[in-house]
Write a structure and sequence with these properties.
By secondary structure, the protein is α/β, with parallel strands linked by helices. The protein folds into three domains: 110 residues, Nucleotidyltransferase, domain 5, CATH 3.30.420.10; 93 residues, no CATH class; 155 residues, no CATH class. Helices cover 54% and strands 13% of the residues. The chain contains 14 helices and seven strands. The strands form two sheets. The chain has a five-stranded mixed sheet. The protein has a two-stranded antiparallel ribbon with strand order 6-7. α7 packs across α13 and α8 runs antiparallel to α10. The protein is globular and about 75 Å long.
Length: 374
């Protein structure tokens, strides 16, 4: 009989706490000890645990340490999974949390088969995802910098009366603005400089995405997703990098739940209450999906830019893109006619958009040979 030892790791920046559960279902779960977070120290500890004729099954929680341990253990042919902390079973009365208890709990649950690993991207896919997230961070920094500038001027009684904020006319207004106090004028110049720097950073990262995305092995999937309304290069690259291989979801409803776009439900007896969306899972992909869903308020049409993005795509891809336009536009205006508020309409349309995105990525995902060749 194959003997397996289940190893739970509680990983921190400087230390790793290790617990081991024996292969017997009623065997003890013991603490191995605390080691340095260095990979060589971990490899040495696992060699001591394994011994002769023993197979290891390692588990640890996803966190700020990333997937370095997972990838190294895979290189050493050691079974390893990474679990989401929010998916760990927890007793309602358990109020104690320590590193040792966490490691023991991971080992025990892994032996019982109660844990399911998350999807771990490879190093190249993760680098593209990090590039897209850097662009999201830069966009957020730019938005906050603009808000600070407008708040500063509003406190001094200056309010732009033009039609559109941050248009060319608005920027000329800010540049020509003369404040009576020298210190206030200096603060205004600093805020304007910060806005320019944040905009330059955002443009620079976007250019990096435009340069690196065509070299990515999944660029064919990005191009197929760009055949849908609302997805240009940045949005499509972000969605593909964040979601990865959606074939792990057997139904589009699972993807909707993964993105937190389904309502929470409290059901007891004859009572059933639906609340707001759960907002669990991947916040970056959810945000991009809601942004793309706003385009479906417009009448279905293959515009010139969309037609250019659809060049070279299969008939199946173009038909799916058109089906998404007609269905989601109809859904958008049905909800509008019912008097549903705009924010809820956008989330509802984004939820249905997930189904089309799931189908598009699933049908255009490259086979293993094609993916390795790119």
């Amino acid at each position: 009989m194959k003997k397996v030892k289940y190893v739970g790791l509680d990983v921190h920046k400087d230390t790793i706490v290790i617990a081991v559960a024996d292969f017997s279902a009623r065997g003890e779960v013991r603490l191995f000890g605390t080691i340095s977070s260095d990979l060589r120290a971990l490899e040495k500890a696992l060699r001591k645990i394994r011994g002769e004729g023993i197979t290891l099954a390692v588990v640890y929680e996803a966190g700020p340490s990333g997937f370095v341990i997972y990838r190294r253990l895979k290189q050493l042919k050691i079974e390893c999974i990474v679990v989401a902390p929010s998916k760990l079973p927890k007793r309602s009365g358990d109020r104690l949390k320590t590193d040792k208890r966490d490691a023991v709990n991971l080992a025990r649950l892994h032996r019982a088969g109660e844990l399911e690993g998350i999807h771990v991207p490879d190093a190249v896919d993760e680098s593209v995802r990090d590039l897209c997230r850097a662009r999201s961070d830069a966009s957020g920094d730019l938005r906050r910098t603009k808000q600070r500038l407008k708040g500063f001027l509003l406190r001094l009684g200056y309010h732009y009366k033009g039609k559109a904020n941050w248009s060319d006319a608005h920027r000329r207004y800010l540049r020509e603005l003369k404040l009576p106090l020298v210190v206030h004028q200096a603060v205004l110049e600093e805020y304007l400089l910060a806005v320019d720097e944040a905009q330059t950073r955002l443009d620079r990262i976007k250019e990096m995405i435009e340069a690196h995305a065509p070299l990515w092995r999944l660029y064919s999937v990005v191009e197929a997703l760009m055949a849908m309304r609302g997805f240009q290069l940045v949005a499509a690259t972000t969605i593909v990098a964040e979601l990865g291989d959606v074939r792990r979801f057997t139904h589009p409803g699972q993807l909707m739940a993964f993105l937190g776009l389904i309502p929470d439900v409290h059901s007891s007896g004859t009572k059933r209450r639906q609340g707001s969306i759960t907002k669990t899972g991947n916040a970056h992909a959810r945000w991009m999906m809601v942004e793309a869903a706003q385009h479906y308020r417009l009448p279905p049409k293959v515009s010139a830019p969309l037609a250019k993005r659809q060049e070279g795509q299969s008939h199946q891809v173009r038909v799916l893109g058109w089906k998404a336009q007609t269905r989601l536009n109809k859904r958008y205006w049905q909800l509008t006619a019912r008097g549903v508020m705009t924010a809820k309409i956008q989330v509802a349309v984004a939820r249905e958009l997930c189904g089309f995105v799931w189908d598009m990525i699933r049908t255009t995902w490259p086979e293993p040979r094609e993916a390795s060749a790119r």
